[in-house]
Amino acid sequence: MKKKRPAQKRGRKWLRRLLVLFFVAFAGLILFFGAISYWVTNPGDFVEAVTPSTFLLTFEEFVWETEQGRLLEAWFIPGAKGSPGILLAPGFELGRSDVLSLAARLKERGYHSLVFRRSQKGALLDRGNAIGLHDEADILAALDLMLARPGVDTRQAGVWGVDVKARGALGAAARRSEIKAVVADSPFNTANEFLRLRLRRGIFPESAFIEHGCRWMLALVRGSSVENFFVEVPVERLEKCRVLFLQGENRAEMTRLAAPVYHRLRADKQMELLPLSRVRMMKAEEMEAYDRQVVRFFRSSLPVPEDPEEAAGRKARPGNQVSKPGGGKK
């Protein structure tokens, strides 16, 4: 028995070493995938120096928590009473300030609009974009807020979204009949497609191990499951909704991802190829052409009701009166 004690001690010593190495390696993997996941989901902080006031627009600001516990921030810009509302959902590398020119043009046409984003407050890994995991639920929460505002037509609404929010807009339209028109700029089918795209843009080599580790980490942090990365956007359920797909020559990789979604959609649809998809840096004429295209689609899909006072004033103008030949008192 005395001869076995040194061997037992050596065995326990090696076991402790192996356990320490295991925990160090496990912690290293957590930090490694945590860092990659943070980069994948965070395009950077957006300083919103431009607000609706810059465009001389009246607006209300909202910060609220969704049923899923996510914090959203929104600007509501009122339009004409009884007009439809258009939900503006900036994409992965866009902030609310980047789409205010579109909100201003919609306002000119009488539409209400609500521009929202996910709040940058909260846990470090939870601040970034959901890259398609929760964007649909966030759009539905923002839609409920917009439809609850006074003067907004609750029977019909439109949604404009870019990349991750374009996918979310299509998914939301499949679940809510109030959404009658969607402009989807550079959508994709599954969250895993966008994850792969982000990883290819980084310094990381293409690796199934890295991809799986990121899926696991993001599912853990976002309170989701790995299977949700492979869920397709349910465009087959879209029926009474018009959809405009916008594809920019500057995002050829997104055009390839959008094509299968477009072909699966059976609803009233059209696709337009533009020189530029919506990005942060656009020339004034490029932004104007883009905004004009979007507003034209919403005007044909969600017409704004004519103001009764304006209609009455137009009828009362002398130029609009028609006198019948032989009229007058006899």
Explain what this protein looks like in three dimensions.
With 330 residues, the protein is α/β, with parallel strands linked by helices. Helices cover 42% and strands 18% of the residues. Helix 2 crosses helix 8 and helix 3 crosses helix 4. The chain is elongated and about 95 Å long.
Give the N-to-C terminal Cα separation: 137 Å
**Quick one: how many beta strands?**
8
Low-confidence runs of at least 5 consecutive residues: 320-330
Share of helical residues: 40-55%
Judged by helices, strands and strand pairing, the structural class is alpha/beta
Q: What's the SSE pattern?
A: HEEEHEHEHEHHEHEHH
Identify the strand order in the major beta sheet: 1-2-4-3-5-6-7-8
**Average pLDDT level:** 85
**Largest β sheet strand count, sense and barrel closure:** 8 strands, mixed
Note the total helix count: 9
The radius of gyration is 26 Å
State which percent range the strand residues make up. Answer: 15-25%
Q: What spatial form do the alpha-carbon principal axes imply?
A: elongated
SSE topology:
Layout: H1 4-41, E1 60-65, E2 71-77, E3 83-89, H2 100-108, E4 112-118, H3 135-147, E5 152-162, H4 164-175, E6 179-185, H5 191-201, H6 208-222, E7 242-248, H7 252-264, E8 269-274, H8 284-301, H9 308-316
Parallel strand pairs: 3-4, 3-5, 5-6, 6-7, 7-8
Antiparallel strand pairs: 1-2, 2-4
In short:
This protein has 330 residues and is an alpha/beta fold. The chain has helices spanning 4-41, 100-108, 135-147, 164-175, 191-201, 208-222, 252-264, 284-301, 308-316; strands at residues 60-65, 71-77, 83-89, 112-118, 152-162, 179-185, 242-248, 269-274. Mean pLDDT is 85; it is low at 320-330.
